[in-house]
Every structure is written in C-alpha cells, then in structure tokens.
C-alpha cells in the first residue's frame, strides 16, 4: 500500500514521499531493528524520547508537532489519533478465512434454530431449543446447552461452554475455554449436613462484550448474573453468582469478583484485584492492581492496597511506613532513659 493511499483512507496529510510502499506496521517497543518499509505510530513527545530507535524510523503515523522528526509521515489530528492507529492495525491484520459452513461432525438438536451465514466447526454441540443468530462463528469443541441464546455475529472460540438458559447478545467475542453459567458457590451447613443451594438463575450478557481465555461467570442463585454492553474482560477473570457488571467496564487478568458484587458503568479493575461479596464499585471508580476492595467505593475514585483505600490516603500511609523504624528506635530510647 502506498503512503498516499493510506493517508487518504485515514483522512490524513502526507509528509515526504507519498509514493513509498508500506509493507506493514511495527512497534518501537519491540527489540527488532527498525524496518524502513513499515509504518510506526508515534503520537507523543514522551514516547518519541523514550525510544532512541525513533531516529531511524522512515515512515511514521504521527501528529503535526512531531512530523519533522521523520522523513516520511502521515499526519493525523492529535485528538483521536489512537483511533487512526487502530484503523491501520486492522488493515494489516491477517485472520484466517473460515468457510461459512456447518461441520458434519457437529451435533445440533433438531429443535435448535440456527441463523444465516453461520460457521459451526468440528465437534460443536448445540442443544435443545438453542437459538443462534446470523453470522455467528463457533470454533471446535464449543458446547451450547439447552435453552441458550446467542446473538448475531458472536464468535465463540474453542472449548467455550455456555450452560443452559444463558443468553448472550450480539457482536460478542468469547475466547477459548471460557465457561459461562456454571453453578455459583452456594452451600449451607446445618446439623452436620452440607446442603447445596440450587442455582436456578442464569447469566445474561449484553452486546459487544469481549472475554479473554479461561474466564468463568457463574449463574445466579435465583435471577441473573449480568454483564453490560461494551465490557471487556482479560484472561482468567472470575465473576461470582448474582454479580451485576455494568457497561463499558474493563476487568484485567486474574481479577475476582465475589458473589453479589455490583460494578457500575465505566469502572476499571486492574490485574489480580479482588472485590469482596455484596460490595458496590461506584460509577467510574478504579481498583488498582493487586488490591482487595472491602468496602463500597466512591464515584470516580482510585483505590489500592489490601484492604484497598483511596489512593491519595494510601500513598500517605505508604510514605509513613518508612518512618516507623526510626520512630520505634526513638521511642525505645526514650523509654530506656525514663
């Protein structure tokens, strides 16, 4: 693709030789040498100075204030520049082209309703009264138990299991070995007997949701565990029964929500964080990595630590910790003198 053609597609301006052929997109953070035929995204002075290799870049996707640092560039507006970068990455993405067909080794119940233009690969199981929307793709080994509903253009990667009566909206992407709708952790001990509490609810997932590999979302005890629209999970996220996760939420890897947690719209949970049962993370709040929330958060407030506290307060606590050895030493000295 010529530099000028890519610029036209992006609505950008050419700086340098518009006839140059671009063969790919590369990343300055990678250890490989700079490729003179690839385009590099550099949209901030901080990023430019961080990477000495930037001086060797021949073709850049950049903003006006940085364009003179490169012999050839596509100049894009600063606002929304990352969206233009995403568009370029998408142009160079090379996904396998799977044929729209149903494998003869798939097992599909006669009562299941399958939409148009679906791809169902080898050894997929589709149970009784399942509804599958148009344009869905199911990779090998997917299991849809009875009563499951899958919205249009949803992709389920290999080994995904959707338990009975759970419902997914449209345009979802669920990565390999994720399990949606397993029983919640409900038990009751009485008179020496451990009773299992039946989990008769389900899981309801909205539209444009992505879940990473090996996530687990438990079904509700009575009603529904819910995941809102445009919410994104990293790998190895666990959502306990009765949880309500809102719209536009990010949950990073190895994060755990205990039962009956509410995560309101726009929250961000960083990696290996945890939220205790029955708590609410208020709209726009942040739980930083390796933190454990043990009380409801405030709106648009960042928390970290175990137990997690507001970030500014926790910074003061951590700063004070370094003073403790000297304070103890001084205390013991005065105690001895007295």
UniProtKB/TrEMBL annotation:
Q: What is its EC number?
A: 2.3.1.191
Q: EC top class, in one word? A: transferase
Q: Which residues form the Mannose-1-phosphate guanyltransferase C-terminal domain?
A: 103-183, 202-273
Q: Name one GO cellular component term.
A: membrane
Task: List GO BP terms, alphabetically.
Answer: lipid A biosynthetic process
Any one GO molecular-function label of the UniProt entry? N-acyltransferase activity
Is the keyword Lipid metabolism assigned to this protein? yes
Q: Which CDD domains match?
A: LbH_LpxD
- Sorted UniProt keywords: Acyltransferase, Lipid A biosynthesis, Lipid biosynthesis, Lipid metabolism, Transferase
Q: Name one Pfam family in it.
A: GMPPB_C
Lipid metabolism recorded as keyword: yes
The residues that cross the membrane are: none
Query: What domain of life does the native source organism fall in?
Result: Bacteria
What InterPro entries is this protein classified in?
GMPPB_C (IPR056729), LpxD (IPR007691), Trimer_LpxA-like_sf (IPR011004)
Name this polypeptide is given: UDP-3-O-(3-hydroxymyristoyl)glucosamine N-acyltransferase
Q: What is the lineage of its organism?
A: Bacteria, Pseudomonadati, Spirochaetota, Spirochaetia, Leptospirales
């Amino acid at each position: 693709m010529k530099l000028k053609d890519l610029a036209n597609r992006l609505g950008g301006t050419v700086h340098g030789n518009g006839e140059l052929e671009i063969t790919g997109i590369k990343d300055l953070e990678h250890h490989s040498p700079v490729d003179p035929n690839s385009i590099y995204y550099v949209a901030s002075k901080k990023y430019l100075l961080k990477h000495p290799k930037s001086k060797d870049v021949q073709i850049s996707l950049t903003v006006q204030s940085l364009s003179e640092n490169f012999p050839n560039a596509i100049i894009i507006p600063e606002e929304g520049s990352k969206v233009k970068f995403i568009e370029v990455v998408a142009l160079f993405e090379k996904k396998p082209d799977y044929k729209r067909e149903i494998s003869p080794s798939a097992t599909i119940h006669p009562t299941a309703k399958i939409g148009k233009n679906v791809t169902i690969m080898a050894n997929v199981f589709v149970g009784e009264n399942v509804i599958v929307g148009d344009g869905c793709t199911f990779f090998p080994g997917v299991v849809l138990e009875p009563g499951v509903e899958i919205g249009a253009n949803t992709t389920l990667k290999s080994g995904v299991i959707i338990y009975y009566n759970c419902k997914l909206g449209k345009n979802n992407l669920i990565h390999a070995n994720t399990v949606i709708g397993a029983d919640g952790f409900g038990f009751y001990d009485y008179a020496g007997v451990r009773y299992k509490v039946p989990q008769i609810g389900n899981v309801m997932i909205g539209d444009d949701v992505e879940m990473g590999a090996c996530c687990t979302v438990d079904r509700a005890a009575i009603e529904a565990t819910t995941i809102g629209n445009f919410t994104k999970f990293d790998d190895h996220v666990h959502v306990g029964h009765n949880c309500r996760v809102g719209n536009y939420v990010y949950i990073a890897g190895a994060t755990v929500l205990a039962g009956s947690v509410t995560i309101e719209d726009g929250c961000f949970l960083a990696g290996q964080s945890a939220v205790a049962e029955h708590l609410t993370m208020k709209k726009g709040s942040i739980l930083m990595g390796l933190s454990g929330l043990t009380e409801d958060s405030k709106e648009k407030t960042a928390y970290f630590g175990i137990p997690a506290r507001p970030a500014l307060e926790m910074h003061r606590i951590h700063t004070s910790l370094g003073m403790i050895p000297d304070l103890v030493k001084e205390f013991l000295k005065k105690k001895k003198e007295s």
